């Protein structure tokens, strides 16, 4: 699974987004170290604070299936330009795979970051 293919799965997942309040649909595709892929979309709620981002949805789905080691996550958001994961999602990724990569759609292409680059000093109580 290369970055382009992973991003394509993120775009497909974006089609399932439930975002009637923000109107901002996001999809994510999470590549596990063994090659398994989990996807997620943002799911909003009438109680706005109950919304979950696409990235955390994908990570939670993977963890619930017994996967905790991730290689990369691709993110496809609405509109033009690069959308980076929010701080909470970065922190959640940091919990499981500090060395993972973050691939953000940017128009017809993408940008590739390390998680460390986007969250240089994540909280860790261990
Ligand atoms: O990286 C991001 C940024 C935002 N959102 C969602 C949360 C909310 O539903 C909507 C607007 O912030 O987009 C994501 O899923 N991922
Ligand atoms: Zn988030």
UniProtKB/TrEMBL annotation:
Coiled-coil-forming residues are: none
Known cofactor(s): Zn(2+)
Gene3D superfamilies with a match to the protein in the record: Cytidine Deaminase, domain 2
- Zinc: present as a keyword of the record? yes
Domain (CMP/dCMP-type deaminase): give its ranges: 1-126
Question: What InterPro entries does the annotation carry?
Answer: APOBEC/CMP_deaminase_Zn-bd, CMP_dCMP_dom, Cyt/Deoxycyt_deaminase, Cyt_deam_tetra, Cytidine_deaminase-like
Q: Which reaction does it catalyse?
A: cytidine + H2O + H(+) = uridine + NH4(+); 2'-deoxycytidine + H2O + H(+) = 2'-deoxyuridine + NH4(+)
Q: Name one GO molecular function term.
A: cytidine deaminase activity
| Keywords (A to Z) from UniProt | Hydrolase, Metal-binding, Zinc
Q: Which domain of life is it from?
A: Bacteria
EC number(s) reported in the record: 3.5.4.5
Q: Where are the transmembrane segments?
A: none
- Its top-level enzyme class, in one word, is hydrolase
Entry-linked PROSITE patterns: CYT_DCMP_DEAMINASES_1, CYT_DCMP_DEAMINASES_2
Q: What does this protein do?
A: This enzyme scavenges exogenous and endogenous cytidine and 2'-deoxycytidine for UMP synthesis.
Question: In which family does this protein belong, per the annotation?
Answer: Belongs to the cytidine and deoxycytidylate deaminase family.
Query: How is this protein named in the record?
Result: Cytidine deaminase
Q: Which organism is it from?
A: Anaerostipes hominis
